Amino acid sequence: MEKIGRILIVDDDETSIFLTRRLLNTLGIGSNVRTAHDGVGGLAILKDALEKGELPQLILVDINMHGMGGFAFLEELGKLRYVNLIDTKIVLLSGSQSPLDIELAERHLSATLVQKPLTRDKLLSVLD
Predict the structure, then answer these.
(1) Mean of the per-residue pLDDT values for the chain?
(2) Domain tally for the chain?
(3) What burial letters (b/e) apply to 91-104, b meaning 16+ CB within 10 Å?
């Protein structure tokens, strides 16, 4: 697994954020994690990171959130033409088994869909 220094978690559930941080720490990649509770907050963090030249190398974003959800976040991210995320891995997290959610996730070729709960094996499979 390549070295991952900067991570953004976008999720409206505090328990999910806590567990994800804990998982990242067990993998030795959780030292520089920023969090947002919806897509709007995630975009603000990305814009700030861009200004500092510190874009995340990994973005974990929940599909279903209050406010701006994961799909809307990806749509807005795609509109930010000045953001080059070629070195950023984007992972969509979902507890949904809805065929519509799975289909929508597959349309976002830049993102990988992972079913919640996020586990060590699931995370490692998308990072390798």
Answers:
(1) 90
(2) 1
(3) bbbbeeeeeebeeb
Asked whether residue 110 is assigned to any structural domain, the reply reads yes
Contact 123, 25 (CB under 8 A): no
Whether a cis peptide bond, with omega within 30° of 0, leads into 117 is yes
Q: Establish if 15 belongs to a structural domain.
A: yes
Q: Nearest-CA neighbor of 32 among 43, 44, 45?
A: 45
Q: Does the residue 60 lie in any domain?
A: yes
CATH code of 52's domain? 3.40.50.2300
Tell me the residue range of the domain where 56 lies: 10-95+105-118
Higher pLDDT, 5 or 42: 42
Q: Is the whole model's pTM more than 0.85, yes or no? A: yes
Residue-wise pLDDT for 76-101, tens only, equals 988 876 677 888 999 999 988 888 87
Q: What is each CA distance from 64 to 54, 60, 61, 85, 96, in whole angstroms? A: 27, 13, 9, 22, 8
